[in-house]
């Protein structure tokens, strides 16, 4: 079976560092689905405006090395415990295929890039190839009483995020609106650090909206520098 992208994703994140670990964790995080020229026919989207959510099937395109282990170390388990790769959502898989549910914000039907779907809550890097789009259907896809394995047993500890007035002013002057700063704080609250990094003196950097955001973490508090 040969597959090719139908679209590519546009995101505030130009690298995989800092991207939310799951779709929906940062509900207001904006992104765009931009179709490749061959698929810019509005007829292919006819009726999609009647749905609130979409499933995206995409590629972990930033993972270049081949997965060679049947087990992985999920961050939610602290990066210390191993579980089977097919019992996780790890990006290190035999086939680098991702699956995300995103919320439709609006659709631009006529642009110089063809129809563009604006979505919120995605966990995709900028430029990610998308191989298929399917509507989210509540009666078939929603299982509110389902068990979630080890995820049920481990609470994900959010960080407190501090942005001083001085830093906020600098971000505003660089074009980051208060709304986008709020989204950035939600992203950082998920703790984007590698699970093995706990040095309170280490300064981390991640790209967001074309800026290089520096921060450090100490005692569950993240300070944007």
From TrEMBL:
Q: What top-level branch of life does the organism fall under?
A: Bacteria
Q: Which InterPro entries match?
A: TrmO-like_N, TrmO_C, UPF0066_cons_site, YaeB-like, YaeB-like_sf, YaeB_N_sf
Keywords attached to this entry: Methyltransferase, S-adenosyl-L-methionine, Transferase
The record's GO molecular-function terms, alphabetically, read:
methyltransferase activity
Q: Which residues form the TsaA-like domain?
A: 3-145
Name of a matching Pfam family: TrmO_N
Query: What CDD domains would the database entry show?
Result: UPF0066
Per the UniProt entry, what are the Gene Ontology biological process annotations, in alphabetical order? methylation
Q: Which family does it belong to?
A: Belongs to the tRNA methyltransferase O family.
- Output the PANTHER family linked to this UniProt entry: TRNA (ADENINE(37)-N6)-METHYLTRANSFERASE
Q: What is this protein called?
A: tRNA (N6-threonylcarbamoyladenosine(37)-N6)-methyltransferase TrmO
Source organism (scientific name) = Segatella hominis
């Amino acid at each position: 079976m040969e597959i090719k992208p139908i679209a590519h994703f546009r995101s505030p994140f130009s690298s995989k560092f800092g991207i939310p670990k799951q779709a929906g964790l940062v509900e207001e995080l904006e992104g765009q689905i931009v179709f490749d020229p061959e698929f810019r026919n509005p007829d292919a989207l006819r009726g999609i405006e009647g749905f609130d959510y979409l499933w995206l099937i995409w590629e972990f395109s930033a993972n270049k090395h081949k997965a060679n282990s049947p087990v992985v170390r999920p961050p939610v388990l602290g990066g210390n415990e191993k579980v089977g790769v097919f019992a996780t959502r790890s990006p290190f898989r035999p086939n680098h295929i991702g699956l995300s549910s995103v919320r439709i914000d609006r659709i631009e039907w006529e642009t110089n890039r063809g129809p563009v779907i604006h979505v919120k809550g995605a966990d995709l890097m900028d430029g990610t190839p998308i191989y298929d789009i399917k509507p989210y259907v509540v009666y078939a896809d929603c299982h509110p009483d389902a068990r979630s394995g080890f995820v049920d047993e481990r609470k994900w500890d959010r960080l407190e995020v501090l942005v001083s007035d001085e830093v906020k002013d600098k971000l505003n002057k660089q074009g980051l609106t208060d709304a986008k700063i709020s989204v950035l704080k939600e992203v950082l609250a998920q703790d984007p650090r590698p699970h093995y990094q706990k040095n309170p003196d280490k300064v981390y950097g991640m790209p967001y909206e074309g800026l290089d955001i520096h921060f450090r973490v100490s005692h569950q508090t993240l300070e944007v520098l």
